[in-house]
Every structure is written in C-alpha cells, then in structure tokens.
Known about the structure:
Blueprint: H1 24-33, E1 38-39, H2 48-58, H3 65-75, H4 77-85, E2 91-96, H5 104-113, E3 118-124, H6 127-140, E4 145-146, E5 149-150, H7 153-163, E6 167-172, H8 182-195, E7 201-207, H9 212-218, H10 225-241, E8 250-257, E9 262-269, E10 273-277, E11 280-284, E12 289-296, H11 300-310, E13 313-319, E14 325-331
Helix pairs in contact: 2-10, 4-5, 8-11
Amino acid sequence: MSLQLNNVLPVNSAAPEIEKYEGIFHKDVVEGLNTYPKKLYSKYFYDPIGDRLFQDIMHMPEYYLTDCELEIFRTKTLELADLITTDESDFDLIELGAGDALKSGHLLQHLSAHHTSYSYMPIDISGNILSLLVEKLDRDIPNLDIVPLEGEYFEMLDQAMNISKRRKVVLFLGGNIGNMDMDEAQLFCAEVRRKLSPGDMIIIGFDLKKNPHTVLSAYNDKTGITSAFNINLLNRINRELEADFDTQYFQHYQSYDPISGACRSFLVSLTNQHVHIKGDSIFFKENELIDMEISQKYAPEEIQRMASLAGFQLIANIEDSKGWFVDSVWRV
Length: 332
Ligand code: AVJ
C-alpha cells in the first residue's frame, strides 16, 4: 500500500494529479497504458505470486544469471571481501534489491566469520521477501546487525545514508541494473555517486553480451514460466485495482537485439478489446503491445564507460568461469 500525503497539503494548493488515483500503482498503470507504446513497469512484477514465479525462473536451466553470479560469490568470496575491506575502516553493507540474499549471503558469512564490524542494510520493494530474509539471516548469522528497508531504491538509499555513520559499500546484484535501459542506468549510477563520499564503493552485477541464443532462451522458456511471470502483472492489476484483463487474450513475446544488448519482453493483445481499471476504460488494438521489461546486456567496454561517466573508478571486474556475468567493483 502506498502512502498518500494529499491531506497534508495546504487547502488552496493546486489539486495534485494523484487524487484521480487511489495510489501510485494505480497511477502508474493507468498512465502507462494510456501512453504509446503502452507500458507497464517491471518493478510491479514482484507481488507474492510474482516473487514465487521469479524463484521458479531462477531454477530454470535456461536462466543462467543466478548460477553465474552465485558461482562468483561462492568461489571468489575472499577476493570480494579483500576488495571491500582494503582500507580497513568499518563500513555498512547496503544491498539494493536484496531479495533472498542468496549470493550476498556468502559474503555476509565470510565477513562475519572474520569478525568484520558492519551492519547489513537490505533494501527491497517486496516486504514479503524482506521479512523472509530477516528470518533466514537471524537463523544463519545470529550476531548480524540487520537494518531492513522496504521501498524504492533511492528513497531507501537516502534513508540508509541517514542511518549509516560509516563508510558505505553498496551491492546492486543480480543484473537488476538490466531493468533500466543504458541511459537510465547511467543516470542511476550518477545519482548513486552523488549520494556517496570518497572511499565508498559499489559492486554492480552486470549480465554480459554473449551468444544471442543463450540470452534469448533465458527469457523465452518453453515451459511458460517467464510468460506467467509477465501475465501475473495483469492478474495483479485485476486483483488490486479491480480490473478485468482477460489474460487468455494476451501473449508473451520476447526479443533480443545482440547489437544494443536490449532483451525486451512484451505482451501482445490477441484481439481488439477494452479493459476496465476502476473508472478508466483502455482500448487494445489487435496485436498492440505492452512494453513490459528490459533486461539490458553489457560489453565490458560499456561497463568501464558507465563507471567513468558516473564518476567512479573501476577497481575490478570479477567474472564467473564462463565469462557470462560480471560483478564490477567501483570506488569513489
Ligand atoms: C531480476 C531483473 C535480474 O531481468 O533477468 C527474469 C528479471 N525477468 N526473467 C532479469 C527477469 C524475466 C531479472 N532481474
């Protein structure tokens, strides 16, 4: 549920647009479906059913990203730990989109076993996932100081900045940066840089450009899990916004452009149809698309460039054994 602040505005201020809507989710959905091309934000995939479908995706043989990054955190833990503890000062570990911390958990275990003094601040949009994570970490690493933050990256990052009094090490793993196009990612990195200070670091997981069949298969599984993951957002809109999407008339379509590195997911309307969302009626032409998600792939040169342009120094690129994924370590 999103927080509405309308009632604290001065009485004579201009009526904010949001009043037409019941919350930011409602606003984003209706506005996104009234633009051309139609668009929904992939950050809304992650309701409890979406969380579970994403877990299923991570277990698909085609979805290599998790395995690759897990291998990096399992086999190169020492290297990662050394890189973030070189300057010996205490720090706080802030993880954007922590999820189940499957990968970072290895680093946490290592740091705790070596008596490093730090707090772990997991940030996630899913409160459901966060409470499961805290439960798991309390069990696995009993003395770990955990400060969970539920919400959007930047808002929670600001909050983490207010709470943390030590050097900051930010983790942004899993290829989550891929859900931004390259321009958005560049702005994102510059914005994170602006919030950090000299000595602070960030480790970003980038999925690398590779054989285009390998990339496309990871997002176009024959079992239909990725399709269900996309369709679930329509069901979520039905559930939460009293909408009437008939999901049998929407079909998942995946594309990958190996030059730009953009892997994109769409839903195709299979017929002319109207969908109602509370007071709004939205028309879909047959074969009209909803732009659902981008999963951007990178070349090492593009990562180097992004770090420099954002004002970071690239310290190390830590790859898996196949060279498919990289955790890139940057320092202010
Ligand atoms: C969670 C953003 C890393 O883009 O690879 C997986 C989400 N979407 N299959 C990705 C996703 C479809 C995933 N990230």
